[in-house]
Amino acid sequence: MIAEDDGDYPLAIGLDAIAALSQIGLDRSLALVKPGALVLIDARLVAEPPQGGFDLRALPISARAVALGSPRIANVIALGALAKLFGLCGEKTLEDAVRLESPPKFLALNLAAAREGLSLAA
Fold first, then answer.
1. What is the pTM of this model?
2. For the chain, N or C: smaller number of CB within 10 Å?
3. Which fold is adopted by the domain 15-121?
4. Edge-to-edge, what's the strand order for the sheet holding 15-20?
5. Residue ranges of domains in the chain
């Protein structure tokens, strides 16, 4: 949920969804993940998936990033998958955001990555 008022301190105290692209990142954040939360992990880079009452999804995020041409776009693939699985936004809104935030040199690759994430999650 997004609050109606201005936040005064940006500290997450309970996560409804998380995208973990490494074991270290998952381990550091797992205590904040609420029961029933969406936990999206990279199937190759997270060797020890969390146990518990989570909606766990293991996707080949980093493998798809390499296949598309750069391991650096794994985060954009994860964003696309998270947008689809968690219902963050529609495809057009995601693509508009990627267009807005991507340097021109990387726009085509980032758009392909976002679409790949949407596709993985379908």
1. 0.89
2. N
3. Pyruvate-ferredoxin Oxidoreductase; domain 3 (3.40.920)
4. 15-20, 33-42, 55-59
5. 15-121
